[in-house]
């Protein structure tokens, strides 16, 4: 082979290796679109992704959009093959922004960090590992670094150093539509660690407390629940209801934890994002024709952080109106 042919072959080989990388880079390069007057999230989703039902996803994942019904001419949209991102609006006279403080624990894009203080619903027949039977100096309330005594010992396989989560069981939760009892609230109070173990009882120290701990509190084997929950696409359509809030507050908003009537048996998994809907009731006295149904309003979005068999715990990640027990939740399967 002549020197020229060798050089040509080497060049072709190099191009064959580099070309795919260029194609991949170009594939991720977004198309930039500037929002025009009259554009809607529904229309953008239909136009660029051929899926008008993507728009609640677009709204929930973009902090630049407060109210899903309002987007503004001049806002820039980055369009990828599988998603749309809206650039934050920049102020007219930008000021020098301070350097961002380094995050102690960076959160991956499209993931939600849960602290481990999330409760859940338990059905009948639930049995805890044990209970706190008394506290040091018979105190009614204890917190971190306080001493407690539990009814678990060496006879149950316990050993020094074992850790447990502390819970309290609250009232039963009924379905807002059917009134069927779905379970009882289990609310985390903290964690403890065994320091001295005897046959049937043990001494322990409270290592963390979220709420007040006292005699009668339930204990369960400890699991580290502080974790990142990455978003994932649903494999099937799901429709359900907000059945209660963890804190018992009637008015629910962004950052609150709620329970929904969708669990593993219905296909709900951690990472699924659902939209909170509220039906709009037509006022017939102002309608020239009989109007039986109007499109529902999307008032919020939530992400499942833990799923049981028939219920799940979810974090409200966005809300534009107060959410209440009985509001509908919905997700459509990825298409």
UniProtKB/TrEMBL annotation:
Q: Which CDD domains match?
A: LysM
Q: Which InterPro entries match?
A: Bact_Kbp (IPR052196), LysM (IPR018392), LysM_dom_sf (IPR036779)
Quick one: signal sequence residues?
A: 1-25
Q: Which UniProt keywords apply?
A: Signal
Pfam families assigned to the protein according to its UniProt record, in alphabetical order = LysM (PF01476)
Q: Does the keyword Ubl conjugation apply?
A: no
Q: What is this protein called?
A: LysM domain protein
Q: Which organism is it from?
A: Geobacter sulfurreducens (strain ATCC 51573 / DSM 12127 / PCA)
């Amino acid at each position: 082979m002549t020197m020229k042919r060798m050089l040509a072959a080497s060049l072709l080989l190099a191009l064959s290796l580099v070309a795919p990388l260029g194609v991949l880079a170009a594939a991720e390069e977004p198309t930039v679109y500037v929002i025009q007057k009259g554009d809607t999230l529904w229309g953008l989703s239909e136009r660029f992704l051929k899926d008008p039902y993507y728009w609640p996803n677009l709204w929930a994942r973009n902090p630049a959009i407060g109210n899903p019904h309002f987007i503004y001419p001049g806002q820039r949209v980055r369009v990828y093959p599988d998603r749309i991102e809206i650039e934050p609006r920049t102020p007219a006279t930008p000021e020098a922004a301070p350097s961002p403080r380094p995050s102690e624990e960076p959160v991956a894009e499209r993931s939600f960090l849960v602290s481990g203080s999330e409760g859940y619903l338990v059905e009948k027949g639930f049995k805890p590992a044990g209970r706190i039977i008394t506290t040091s100096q018979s105190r009614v309330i204890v917190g971190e670094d306080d001493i407690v005594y539990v009814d678990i010992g060496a006879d149950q396989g316990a050993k020094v150093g074992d850790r447990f989560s502390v819970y309290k069981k609250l009232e039963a939760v009924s379905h807002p539509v059917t009134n069927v009892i779905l379970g009882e609230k289990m609310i985390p109070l903290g964690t403890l660690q065994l320091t001295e173990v005897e046959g049937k009882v043990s001494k322990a120290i409270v290592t963390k407390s979220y709420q007040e701990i006292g005699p009668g509190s339930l204990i369960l084997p400890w699991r580290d629940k502080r974790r990142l929950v990455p978003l994932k696409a649903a494999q099937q359509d799901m429709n359900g209801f907000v059945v209660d809030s963890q804190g018992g507050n009637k008015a629910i908003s962004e950052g609150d934890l709620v329970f929904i009537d969708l669990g593993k048996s219905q296909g709900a998994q951690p990472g699924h994002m659902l939209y909170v809907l509220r039906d709009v009731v037509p006022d017939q006295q102002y309608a020239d024709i009989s109007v039986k149904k109007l499109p529902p309003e999307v008032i919020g979005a939530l992400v499942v952080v833990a799923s049981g068999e028939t219920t799940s715990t979810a974090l409200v990640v966005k809300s534009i109106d107060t959410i209440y027990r009985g509001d509908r939740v919905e997700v459509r399967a990825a298409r």
